[in-house]
Amino acid sequence: MITAALFLCFLLLFIAGTPVGVALGLAGCLAIFMADLGLMAAPTNAYTGIAKYPLLAVPMFVLVGAIFDRSGVALRLVNFTSAIVGRRAGSLAAVTVIVSMFLGGISGSGPANAAAVGGAMIGALSRAGYPRAFSASVIGAAAATDILIPPSIALIIYSVLVPQASVPALFAAGMIPGILAGIALIVPVLYVSKKNGFGLAEKDLPRPPFWKSFREAIWGLLAPVLILGGMRAGWFTPTEAAVMAVLYGLFVGFVIYRSLTLRDVYEMFVEAAEISGVILIVVALAAIFGWAGSTLGVFDHAANAIVATGGNQYVILTLLIIMLIVIGMFLDGVSTFLILLPLLMPIANKFGWDPVWFGVLLTLKIAIGQFTPPMAVNLMVSCRIAGVPMESTLRWVFPMIASMFVVLILMVIFPEIALWLPRVLGYL
């Protein structure tokens, strides 16, 4: 009865339009009250849910994404990538994917990536002859690589919820799948562009001079080297790396490019505080739900029931993939992890799945969901910037979904795609 009340209360509140965090918190409080566990456990677990050192990186990486957007790093990266790729049909759309992947090494938020790249690329893509609906599809899909390529806010949250998977191991494990996902997206982008004659006007656009664009973009190119290289060298932890990235971004914006003002800093701090506040409130309220479910044994019983259906691990994994991609259409990665990990980890433990591989696999599933209509969070941002309805992107976005799904299948068949790099670096 209490188990039913926990899930039913959450589902009813969620369907009624209650914010995810509030629905989780209220459902957890109801279960705690019905089980007579003491309602004072709710505020205690809300506090312990966010009183974790790795979570300090979340507001810093949100802030650094805003800094590199406003300082003009994204636009300089576009020029440099265009100088490498050249000017031909489809090349500017491919540049969009590459720049999104690179920005994934600076900020760990998919919607933030979509906003930064969309602001820099929508106009250029339109002038080159790309339909705005296609441009929005490319940007929304490419931004999904952001939660795979480190640093990733979703992977940080996963490490907090699954202590046996460290942040450095997850960051290393996400690198190769993230790059493969980006390459997989470029294939349908070039094919569709060539087939439909998109970007033919690119041939008339001047190719940016290589060395000039390289000099302008060098400071942005060094950012992932600073973040990831510093962590690998042991100079700082992932949390401290986020602070270093903020300082580096402010230095580039004020001293090198001289494109930031104190007014910009104030607005960026407000924006980062609002986004981070929402994330951490959801984390805190989800901790109540998680504690109630684990204390009552709800998640273990549910996991045992799923395993007891008699399906082998690949059947169960297929069902989880379908479920998570559908859920990813409606929820961001952080919310999905907070809601489902208490249920999913007992299943992973039953089958002996590596927690690092499982975390990256879950993140890739969520990444696909982030640009899968009808409620794709990345696509919502890119469509808003492009000024097009999401329905207009359907014919363009599904080939990109299929290409990312191929990477997902490869990861299931060959787990070393995710585990090879952390093994080499000594994190496993």
TrEMBL record:
Annotated GO MF terms: transmembrane transporter activity
Top-level taxon of the source organism: Bacteria
All residue ranges annotated as the TRAP C4-dicarboxylate transport system permease DctM subunit domain in the record: 7-417
Membrane topology, from the record: Multi-pass membrane protein
GO cellular component: plasma membrane
Keyword entries, A-Z: Cell inner membrane, Cell membrane, Membrane, Transmembrane, Transmembrane helix, Transport
One Pfam family named in its UniProt record: DctM
Transmembrane segments: 51-68, 89-106, 137-161, 167-192, 213-235, 241-260, 272-294, 314-344, 356-376, 396-421
Compartmental location: Cell inner membrane
Keyword Membrane: yes
Keyword Membrane: yes
Protein function: Part of the tripartite ATP-independent periplasmic (TRAP) transport system.
Sequence similarity: Belongs to the TRAP transporter large permease family.
Oligomeric form and interacting partners: The complex comprises the extracytoplasmic solute receptor protein and the two transmembrane proteins.
Protein name: TRAP transporter large permease protein
Organism the protein comes from: Variibacter gotjawalensis
Lineage of the species this protein comes from: Bacteria, Pseudomonadati, Pseudomonadota, Alphaproteobacteria, Hyphomicrobiales
